[in-house]
Amino acid sequence: MKRNKVKGICNLSAQIQQIFTFENAEQQTKLIGVNDNFLRLIEEGLSVQLHARGDQMTISGDESQVQLARAVLSELTNLIKHQINLSPTDVVSAVTMAQRGTLEYFGDLYSETLIRDNKGRAVRVKNFGQRQYIQAIRKNDITFGIGPAGTGKTYLAVVMAISSLKRGEVERIIITRPAVEAGESLGFLPGDLKEKVDPYLRPIYDAMNAIIGAEQTQRLMDRGVIEIAPLAYMRGRTLDDAFIILDEAQNTTNQQMKMFLTRLGFGSKMIVNGDVSQIDLPRGAKSGLISAQKILADVNRIAFVRFSSADVVRHPVVGLIVNAYEAAEERLALLKKEH
């Protein structure tokens, strides 16, 4: 008999109903969400039906899923009790962790504020995968974050970089990416190499602006405290007392990856992020990120954190899209083997 990891609940197929009772009207309003949007996320994620009436909510569905839904509601209620305003991301994270059997760690995600953004809002990890990522960054000199878009790799890397800068642990932040064309020709874009690559660095700028504001970002860039540049600009440098982020690392060659990693200087940290399912290198070129996973797997002070579609913290449909494409690629690979 299979058992779910949440409180050892039996995974049975019986259809049941359970009652969840709200403690007060304010808790009910916050837990349900605007136009019942939080309830819909739980219903879709766990295949249950939720019906709120008065101070009670009926949970209907498969017994194991009903128990998971009840556990999710309890965890979200605890956040409300701690004066944390719920967002759709919080609800999706709780549902995903319940599905993966890691819901017991959900409350821990909110025990620490990594930083406050430029609007004063607390920035925290959103799921178990992100928690492992942050812990790896703290413990290691070089951390690889590998996984699909929407898992928060780039944003959290920038968060950790700014936090280190504010604490005086590093003197500057250097963010780079390979100048590989993503469906467009760089040759037809105006300006020098940096100006041509800047549009592809937009997610980095967006993260910086969200955390410290556009004006502060520009001031720090003008002073050289923050440097955002193509990977080619890293050659021949030794980067001491710096927090260095390589984004879109799947588009590096083996030579570029080795060049980048050997820039690490004293008092510095590196984060290498990429998604091996979105390689834009010319046909026949090998990804430096794929090679690095094999070559550096057993090297001390280097960590690899792998994200999956379950770690996606965007709209739930994004995770479904990632799953659908992965399934299609697996079917195509299988067909090629058969022929």
UniProtKB/TrEMBL annotation:
One of its GO terms (cellular component) is cytosol. Residues 123-326 form the PhoH-like protein domain. It holds the Pfam family PhoH. Keywords: ATP-binding, Cytoplasm, Nucleotide-binding. Its main location: cytoplasm. It is found in: Cytoplasm. GO terms for molecular function: ATP binding. InterPro entries: P-loop_NTPase, PhoH, PhoH2-like. SUPFAM superfamilies: P-loop containing nucleoside triphosphate hydrolases (SSF52540). The keyword Methyltransferase does not apply. Signal peptide: none annotated. Belongs to the PhoH family. PANTHER family: PHOH-LIKE PROTEIN (PTHR30473:SF1), PROTEIN PHOH (PTHR30473). This is PhoH-like protein.
